[in-house]
């Protein structure tokens, strides 16, 4: 192992892939570098949350794409791409050739886009189909009762019927601060949106309303009744005026 551990060494330490001597060397290094120790602690928390979220998912055989290390690597790659794009945007602004754009909706965690867990959950359930709903309601009222029981009285479903979307199922997820839930909505054209609701990490981390693109997906997010939420789906579906109006009424 390198005398000074690099990112690969630190991630191997988090994943328990080092031998005793290498692990001891990393721990000595972290004891002298509190900033890196805090980063490693956050990585370990992320890994624990990913494992907790995936524990209840029945996998169709071994799927290496769903291993927590693979998911973290994809997130890191997307973060590097976003930073590269942001740098090019700032360069263009400096030249006076780029204008009219706004950066909005970033949260207090540097390098981590808001409600990334909601986007990953959408990909896992809708795009990849690696997990299924564990509750299928007979009505929106039945689903609301299920959500209240599992997540709390502050969990309120948005009414997207004016946009042609109806709730078709839900699934619970685990977070370090309590239960989260994702409700899937579908319309007659086969488009799927998700409403993801979870408790904030602290009362100071409620989210201002915002939106962001993540590849072909659009996420609209904010806080309601003391909880953070995101509605995720294809940009053309989520940009419908009726959907936007329903989410504005939610807050």
From TrEMBL:
This is Transmembrane anti-sigma factor. Keywords: Membrane, Transmembrane, Transmembrane helix. The chain crosses the membrane at residues 83-101. The keyword Amino-acid biosynthesis does not apply. The keyword Phosphoprotein does not apply. InterPro entries: Anti_sigma_zinc_sf (IPR041916), Znf_put (IPR027383). It comes from the Bacteria. Coiled coil: none annotated. It holds the Pfam family zf-HC2. Residues 10-31 form the Putative zinc-finger domain.
């Amino acid at each position: 192992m390198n005398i000074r551990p690099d990112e690969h060494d630190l991630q191997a330490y988090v994943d328990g892939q080092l031998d005793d001597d290498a692990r001891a060397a990393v721990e000595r290094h972290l004891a002298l570098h509190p900033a890196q120790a805090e980063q490693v602690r956050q990585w370990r928390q992320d890994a624990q949350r990913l494992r907790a979220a995936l524990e209840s998912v029945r996998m169709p055989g071994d799927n290496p794409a769903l291993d927590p290390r693979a998911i973290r690597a994809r997130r890191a790659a997307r973060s590097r791409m976003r930073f590269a794009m942001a740098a090019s945007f700032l360069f263009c602004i400096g030249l006076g050739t780029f204008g009219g754009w706004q950066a909005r909706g970033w949260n207090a965690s540097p390098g981590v886009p808001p409600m990334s867990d909601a986007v990953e959950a959408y990909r896992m359930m809708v795009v990849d189909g690696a997990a299924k709903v564990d509750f299928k309601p007979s009505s929106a009222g039945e689903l609301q009762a299920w959500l209240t029981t599992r997540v709390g009285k502050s969990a309120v479903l948005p009414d997207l019927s004016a946009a042609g979307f109806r709730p078709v199922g839900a699934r619970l997820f685990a977070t370090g601060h309590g239960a989260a839930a994702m409700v899937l909505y579908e319309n007659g054209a086969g488009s799927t949106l998700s409403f993801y609701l979870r408790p904030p990490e602290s009362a100071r981390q409620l989210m201002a309303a915002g939106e962001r693109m993540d590849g072909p997906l659009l996420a609209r997010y904010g806080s309601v009744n003391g909880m953070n939420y995101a509605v995720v789906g294809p940009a053309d579906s989520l940009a419908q005026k009726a959907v936007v109006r329903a989410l504005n009424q939610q807050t």
